[in-house]
Amino acid sequence: MSLAQRGRSLSVSGFLLAGAIGIISSTQTWLTVERADAGEAILVPGASALVLLAPLSLAVLALGAALSIAARVLRVVFAVLAGAASVLLGWSTIQMLASPIGSVGPAVTDATGLAGGDALGDVVDAVVPTAWPIIALVGWVILLAASVFVLLTWRGWKAGGRRYRTDASETARHDGPVDAVDSWDELSRGTDPTR
User: Fold this and answer.
1) Per-residue pLDDT tens digits for 30-47
2) CATH architecture, domain 7-158
């Protein structure tokens, strides 16, 4: 089996893996705030450090599920959307790592009740990132690679979603009385026999 023929399963797997990494990492500690006032360290989860992390990760999971049955044109649309999400999340993660103090503000305010740049400067001694932002970056790279792979191979995929379509000849309505077997057959084809 060629790479193009396995394109759908590889692409869907890449989307789902990246989305799962994003969702899992959103619940994990991304940043540890060491306090200058000798208070207990403040742990900042990914969803607080990067507000778009959880919603976009869920969207990527949905795109992966939809890609498995998508028609030809939608494959390209989904690949472009997922590629844009990977670039946005990757750039946001890099920005957060470059300047983490901006990402810990809400968590520090919740923990201490202090707000504002001067107050944060007095409370925050250091912000130490964990491994989770790097793991998330790997997920975004996987998502970008899967998106590019969709754009390169989508023409070679088998037609998807056939099992979700009905043929007009199969769903022809009965003109006479309908027995119980015919009703079950119509229900199996997705037709409401009571109409």
Assistant:
1) 999 888 887 788 899 999
2) Up-down Bundle (1.20)
